């Protein structure tokens, strides 16, 4: 019923004068009723009035406007009433709008992405989703109940998605994209377009400096602008050669020109992740492609807006769309047979020889993903400018390299096709149109469900103390190795009271655990009777290995698991670390004639302390005029006097370089193609245990191990203190040589040894596809690194570092 004038009367008058203030009264305790009236106190000249205002946006706007008027009066003549100047309330400050915002987001039952979560979330996973510091325990319970009852206030609405992929082979957009992007009568609601091989130049490879990105972006957007309607969402993302633009949500790249980028977004109440990837080439490399896919899935992460929440992986989305040049080929058929089957349009028969189909059937890759029926001819490889198959000397077997797959519910593929009209590349673009069912919130039903949950929580008792049981409290990690993840799991079982838990830092410590350890999730919420599995992940990398190698730090830590309104639980974490040459200083390794894992910890610690004060004295120069002498094996003398002298270079470095010198001088794409993680682990064990006979694994794995070794050095080959000087004289070989001559002898020996090795590789550039710019860029960032605390190198600094190394690759230096 409407309020009339007869329903309102004057009861009390509060003068607006000096000291006037309007203050919101915040109730004590964590269990304030969400949606209840807002208590406001009005006071002026010793008089006051307390009123209840209805919960909602109108009250919030009123309080913010009063605060705004009060703060504007501060420092000015102010507003005068009855001859007195008004003063701002001491309870409101300049940031009053910000102060009120948290409570508004906390109490107002609005439909937001923070409050409404995906119904695909399991109760056991709520811990990693619902733990937000600005929400109290009661609010967290409301959120978890909303998650479980999501189906009661959401409905499925179909939206049309266009997904396209095109490997443009470094070409510029010289032809219209209309046959690809405007092949349907009506525009879709969402466009997702990905490109590969946008720019194949070396500048783009190393410095992310390419004008072609803007050319293609303009070509795509110009085509969209011609539609009579505007799409709801435009996602822009590209494959780059070794680097990506900053607008991407997450990035994972391999060495070389292969890798992947992804973008995620929330569409109504459905989370969507789109991945654009370019996997390893060549028919025989299908296992490498499988590994590329797994690496992207496991290592690509999206940081959430709340830094307290763990990053999201690709799999943590309702809808996943995967597109790109996946590079899977046709096998067991020669080129003529394939062309014959294509001419006969026998695509189902041809698909039986498709590597991707076979690998998916074997559950070796893209498990859980779906690909539509292929009814178009292979998209690779064509002669540029026409529709003729590859007529080059290699005469590639046609293959469906360019693919689109999806994963999720309520997805219907309407079309899957290639577009033969585009001819500038050796690939043909591919597109697919989907009807995707998106969860949309009915605000009226949502408010009804919200109010039902609040009413039910009003009846809950809040005096109970939460209690949990832990399946394990002591954890020991056995034989921890460098860059080899170990995981221990335990279960938190909750009692009969809702429980919010968190690992908290100990007194005088910033983080809850040591740098080499992480608990996943580190905080969360448990419903009564529920449980959650916590993973303790131990991983030693370049930032933590040095102190562990020297024995200055041990794998020991105590974790404190805190329950909100409950007690603390203490977890003991120990482990034994196997020392490694990775993460050890150059001068330390030069004094180690025996494998690092054979040395006792006190000896390593004493050696580090000794060398810290006196670096590598009286070394014998090992560089001779001929390359065969330069790369000669190390002499391991048994003489007692000789044993006290340091080695000229670390024996581990010699083992890797010697292996590459003897076996990989003509290896194609050396240092540009990644090795296998399993082979790296074998190589690391060989170096650390002193197995000198041979190094396991491919040449690419040994090359990657060498790069990781140089990257892990706590003090780079060119010492930190020379960093700025090297950049300043990057174009002056004489000054650069003088800097190298001032390095500690063990560092100088390593630098000259590596330069000699790289110059030898350049003599075989016709076979290994290396050139001086590639090697200078790769090793410039490893040998010449900015000191700790220095800003991240920009493009100018990277170019100077490259130029500095470039000088020594073009000429032999003799600094002795």
From TrEMBL:
Q: What InterPro entries would the database entry show?
A: Endo/exonu/phosph_ase_sf, Ig-like_fold, INPP5B_PH_dom, IP5, IPPc, OCRL-1_2_ASH, OCRL1/INPP5B_INPP5c, Rho_GTPase_activation_prot
UniProt record similarity statement: Belongs to the inositol 1,4,5-trisphosphate 5-phosphatase type II family.
Any matching Pfam family:
RhoGAP
Q: Which organism is it from?
A: Pavo cristatus
The kind of enzyme this is, by top-level EC class, is hydrolase
- According to the entry, every stretch annotated as the Rho-GAP domain falls at 632-816
Q: Write down any Gene Ontology CC term.
A: cytosol
What this protein is called in its record is phosphoinositide 5-phosphatase
* PANTHER family found in the cross-reference section: INOSITOL 5-PHOSPHATASE (PTHR11200), TYPE II INOSITOL 1,4,5-TRISPHOSPHATE 5-PHOSPHATASE (PTHR11200:SF300)
């Amino acid at each position: 019923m409407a309020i009339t004038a007869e329903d309102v009367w004057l009861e009390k008058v509060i003068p607006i004068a000096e000291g006037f203030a309007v203050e919101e009264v915040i109730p004590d305790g964590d269990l304030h009723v969400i949606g209840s009236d807002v208590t406001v106190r009005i006071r002026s000249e010793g008089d006051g009035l307390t009123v209840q205002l209805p919960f909602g946006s109108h009250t919030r706007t009123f309080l913010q406007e009063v605060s705004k008027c009060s703060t504007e009066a501060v420092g000015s003549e102010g507003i005068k009433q009855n001859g007195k100047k008004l003063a701002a309330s001491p309870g409101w400050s300049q940031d009053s709008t910000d102060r009120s915002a948290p409570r508004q987001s906390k109490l107002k039952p609005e439909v937001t992405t923070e409050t409404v979560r995906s119904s695909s979330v399991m109760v056991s996973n709520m811990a990693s989703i619902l733990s937000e510091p600005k929400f109290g325990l009661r609010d967290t319970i409301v959120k978890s109940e909303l998650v479980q009852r999501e189906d009661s206030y959401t409905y499925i609405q179909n939206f049309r998605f266009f997904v396209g992929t095109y490997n443009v082979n470094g070409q510029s957009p010289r032809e219209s994209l209309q046959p690809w992007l405007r092949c349907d009568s009506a525009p879709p609601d969402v466009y997702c377009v990905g490109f590969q091989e946008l720019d194949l130049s070396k500048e783009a490879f190393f410095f992310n400096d390419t004008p072609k990105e803007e050319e293609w972006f303009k070509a795509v957007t110009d085509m969209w602008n011609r539609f009579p309607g505007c799409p709801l969402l435009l996602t822009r993302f590209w494959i780059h050669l070794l680097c990506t633009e900053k607008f991407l949500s997450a990035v994972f790249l391999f060495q070389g020109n292969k890798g992947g980028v992804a973008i995620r977004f929330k569409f109504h109440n459905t989370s969507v992740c789109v991945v654009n990837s370019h996997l390893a080439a060549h028919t025989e490399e299908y296992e490498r492609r499988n590994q590329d896919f797994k690496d992207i899935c496991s290592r690509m992460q999206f940081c959430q807006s709340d830094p307290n929440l763990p990053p999201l992986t690709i799999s943590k989305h309702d809808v996943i769309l995967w597109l790109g040049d996946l590079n899977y080929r046709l096998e067991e058929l020669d080129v003529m047979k394939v062309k014959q089957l294509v001419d006969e349009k026998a695509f189902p028969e041809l698909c039986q020889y498709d590597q991707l189909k076979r690998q998916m059937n074997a559950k070796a890759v893209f498990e859980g993903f779906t690909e539509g029926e292929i009814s178009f001819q292979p998209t690779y490889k064509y002669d540029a400018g026409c529709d003729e198959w590859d007529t080059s000397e290699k005469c590639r077997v046609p293959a469906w390299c360019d693919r689109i797959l999806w994963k999720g519910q309520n997805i219907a593929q309407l079309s899957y096709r290639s577009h033969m009209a585009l001819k500038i590349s050796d690939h043909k673009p591919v597109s697919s149109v989907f009807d995707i069912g998106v969860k949309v919130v009915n605000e009226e039903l949502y408010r009804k469900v919200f109010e039902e949950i609040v009413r039910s929580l009003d009846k809950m008792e809040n005096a109970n103390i939460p209690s949990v049981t832990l399946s394990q409290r002591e954890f020991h990690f056995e034989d921890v190795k460098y860059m080899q993840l170990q995981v221990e799991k335990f279960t938190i079982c909750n009692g009969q009271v809702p429980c919010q838990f968190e690992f908290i830092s100990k007194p005088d410590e910033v983080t809850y655990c040591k740098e080499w350890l992480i608990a996943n999730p580190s905080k969360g919420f448990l419903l009564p009777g529920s449980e959650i599995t916590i993973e303790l992940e131990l991983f030693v990398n370049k930032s933590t290995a040095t102190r562990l190698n020297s024995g200055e730090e041990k794998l020991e830590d105590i974790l404190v698991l805190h329950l909100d309104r409950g007690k603390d639980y203490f977890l003991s974490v120990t482990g034994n670390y196997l020392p490694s040459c990775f993460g050890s200083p150059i001068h330390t390794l030069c004094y180690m004639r025996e494998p690092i894992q054979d040395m006792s910890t006190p000896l390593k610690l004493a050696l580090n302390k000794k060398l810290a004060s006196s670096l590598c004295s009286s070394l014998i120069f090992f560089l001779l005029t001929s390359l065969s002498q330069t790369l000669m094996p190390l002499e391991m003398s048994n003489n007692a006097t000789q044993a006290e002298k340091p080695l000229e270079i670390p024996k581990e470095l010699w083992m890797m370089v010697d292996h590459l010198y003897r076996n990989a001088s003509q290896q194609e794409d050396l240092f540009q193609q990644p090795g296998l993680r399993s082979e790296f682990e074998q190589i690391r064990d060989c170096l650390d245990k002193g197995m000198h006979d041979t190094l396991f694994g491919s040449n690419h794995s040994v090359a990657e191990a060498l790069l990781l070794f140089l990257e892990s050095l706590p003090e780079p080959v060119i010492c930190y203190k020379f960093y700025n000087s090297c950049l300043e004289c990057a174009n002056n070989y004489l000054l650069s040589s003088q800097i190298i001559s001032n390095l500690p002898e063990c560092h100088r020996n390593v630098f000259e040894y590596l330069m000699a090795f790289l110059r030898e590789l350049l003599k075989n550039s016709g076979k290994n596809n290396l050139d001086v710019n590639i090697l200078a860029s790769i090793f410039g960032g490893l040998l010449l690194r900015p000191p700790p605390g220095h800003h991240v190198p920009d493009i100018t600094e990277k170019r100077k570092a490259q130029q500095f190394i470039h000088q020594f690759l073009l000429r032999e230096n003799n600094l002795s």
